[in-house]
Amino acid sequence: MSESPYERGTTHFGFRDVPAGEKQKLVGQVFTSVARKYDLMNDLMSLGIHRAWKRYYTATCQVKPGDRVLDLAGGTGDIAALLKSRVGPGGTIVLGDINAGMLSVGRDRLTDRGLVAGLEYVQCNAEKLPFPDASFDLVTMAFGLRNVTDKDAALREIARVLRVGGQARVLEFSEVTAEWFKPIYDFHSFKVLPRLGQLFAGDAGSYQYLAESIRKHPPQEELKAMMEQAGLGRCSYINLSAGIVAIHTGYKL
């Protein structure tokens, strides 16, 4: 079996191979650039459907009042806001994001909505989480895993910080299942999206990267296997919108 690009000391940044140590900085530059336009970015990438995906994702999470939740790549606070009422006043949601700009946007937005109590903000790398073992009842990661350099390490860390019986949930762009839709999706991703990024955000390059990063992300079955190898059990996934995105679920057994 040939070694992976990551094992050779390189990894992908979109369709380019770059030194593994540089990807974090490059991804950081992208999200610093788009932080204030993050909702617009997701609207352009998903034609606005990301809002429905997130509502379904949070509505079907295993969470109850009083739970402690870690929302990785929590950035602008969308997932935290949707989960806040479900953990109630006795619960806590920790927003973790590697990018200070994204975290700042999330804190400001949640504060503006009057959501302050029971929310914590931690700038952290998903590959090396600064939390003890068995710290959380639920770990969520929405549209963030594909930007992590070492996805296997991040998944192992998610498993480590979960309590026994706790749930891990990953919402991510995935592999489209309908063959007829693939050329339409490719046209939107590579021809339309960068132009919209340039027009509305003045940044075609970041949007080009984001489209490419989706194609380099592990497809459904591969990501399921990665979660199992990371130590999670009862792993499964469901496709939304013909596989444009998938929700992956695993448990700490």
Structure explained in plain terms:
- The chain has 253 residues and is α/β, with parallel strands linked by helices.
- It has a single domain, classed as Rossmann fold (3-Layer(aba) Sandwich).
- 44% of the residues lie in helices and 23% in strands.
- The protein is built from nine helices and nine strands.
- It has a seven-stranded mixed beta sheet, sandwiched between helices. A two-stranded antiparallel ribbon has the order 1-2.
- The radius of gyration is 17 Å and the shape is globular.
Q: Please state the overall shape, judged from the principal axes of the Cα atoms.
A: globular
Structural class: alpha/beta
Distance between the termini: 31 Å
- How many individual β-strands? 9
Q: Strand order of the main beta sheet, please?
A: 5-4-3-6-7-9-8
CATH top level class name: Alpha Beta
Query: What do the pLDDT scores average to?
Result: 87
> pLDDT below 50 for ≥5 consecutive residues: which ranges?
1-5
What is the strand content? 15-25%
Task: Please specify the SSE layout and strand pairing.
Elements: E1 10-13, E2 16-19, H1 20-34, H2 38-46, H3 50-59, E3 68-72, H4 78-87, E4 92-97, H5 100-112, E5 119-123, E6 136-142, H6 151-161, E7 162-173, H7 182-201, H8 204-216, H9 220-229, E8 233-240, E9 245-251
Key features?
253 residues; alpha/beta; Rossmann fold; seven-stranded mixed β-sheet; disordered N terminus
Please outline what is shown here.
The protein has 253 residues and is an alpha/beta fold. It has a single domain, classed as Vaccinia Virus protein VP39 (Rossmann fold, 3-Layer(aba) Sandwich).
